[in-house]
């Protein structure tokens, strides 16, 4: 795979006889800040040993090229899972399970003073069995370290950006929870809360507009799950759950209300066939 900053290779660890993913940082356009972000990603992921955080095995440099050896996530990312699901949305049970696993990762990260700052389906990876793990900590803030962004600068992906971040304010743990809410919204409905091609308009919507209720697109969503998703998307951080621990408990409470068996399974993850 290839992204804007790096290339990822499927490799064989010949010593431990296992498959791994090696992320090779691109040389083109690599500056001091880009290298610092890469180092920040390594530090964040290596310090957060948790079942729902992608594991870092090693870091190195070869011929001036920096690389990161990671746990291989054979299930791909949740963004691809949504795109491949019938009606391009996940069933409520799968969405809740993935939401719980991401909330658990954030609970652990926030407890260690780390903000992810780029929570989205494309940064949530799946094992072969379908377990979700949070990865891609390139924009993370580690408590006690200097911030690489100044006040007034926006960090993260626009489609999932918290209103306070869109206004140029510093992110906090509740900003990560907003992004989790936007990701949960997309899993449940197949669309982001504020779709659009105009970044300025999308940012305006995050700051000023209310998202359409998820049940408008997926009537089978339990009311409690819809309410939690909209609470995570509250404009005022004070109106959101106070912590990832609270989100995890809330998801556990609504889990038993999720009804109906999934009819399709991809990599151990169910996908609904209900019409939106």
Kindly summarize this structure in a few lines.
By secondary structure, the protein is an alpha+beta fold. The chain has helices at residues 32-47, 78-84, 92-111, 163-166, 173-189, 199-208, 223-232, 244-255; strands spanning 6-13, 18-25, 56-62, 65-71, 114-115, 124-126, 132-134, 141-142, 264-266, 269-271.
Overall description:
The structure is a single chain. The protein starts with 5 loop residues before the first strand and ends in a 5-residue tail after the last strand. The longest helix has 20 residues, at 92-111. A hairpin with a 5-residue loop joins strand 6 and strand 7. A four-stranded antiparallel sheet has the order 1-2-4-3, with helices on one face. It has a two-stranded antiparallel sheet with strand order 5-8. A two-stranded antiparallel sheet has the order 6-7. It is globular and about 55 Å long. The protein has eight helices and ten strands. It is α+β, with helices and mostly antiparallel strands. It has helices at 32-47, 78-84, 92-111, 163-166, 173-189, 199-208, 223-232, 244-255, and strands at residues 6-13, 18-25, 56-62, 65-71, 114-115, 124-126, 132-134, 141-142, 264-266, 269-271.
């Amino acid at each position: 795979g290839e992204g804007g900053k790096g290339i990822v290779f499927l490799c064989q660890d010949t010593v431990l006889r296992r498959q791994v993913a090696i992320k090779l940082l691109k040389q083109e356009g690599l500056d001091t800040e880009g290298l610092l972000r890469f180092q920040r990603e390594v530090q964040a992921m290596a310090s957060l040993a948790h079942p729902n955080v992608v594991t870092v095995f090693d870091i190195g440099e070869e011929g001036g090229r920096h690389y990161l050896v990671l746990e291989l996530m054979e299930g791909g990312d949740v963004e691809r899972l949504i795109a491949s699901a019938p009606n391009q949305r996940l069933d409520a049970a799968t969405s809740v399970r993935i939401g719980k696993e991401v909330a658990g990762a954030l609970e652990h990260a926030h407890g260690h003073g780390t903000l992810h700052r780029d929570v989205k389906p494309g940064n949530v990876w799946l094992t072969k069995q379908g377990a979700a793990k949070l990865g891609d900590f390139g924009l993370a803030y580690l408590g006690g370290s200097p911030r690489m962004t100044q006040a007034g600068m926006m960090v993260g992906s626009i489609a999932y950006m918290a209103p306070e971040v869109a206004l140029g304010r510093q992110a906090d743990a509740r900003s990560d929870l907003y992004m989790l809410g936007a990701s949960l919204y997309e899993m449940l409905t197949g669309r982001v809360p504020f779709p659009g091609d105009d970044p300025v308009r999308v940012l305006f919507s995050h700051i000023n507009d209310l998202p359409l209720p998820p049940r408008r697109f997926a009537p089978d969503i339990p009311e409690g799950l819809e309410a939690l998703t909209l609470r995570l998307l509250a404009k005022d951080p004070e109106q959101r759950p106070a912590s990832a621990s609270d989100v995890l408990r809330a998801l556990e409470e609504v889990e038993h209300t999720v009804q109906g068996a999934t009819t399709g399974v991809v990599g151990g993850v169910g996908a609904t066939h209900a019409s939106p």
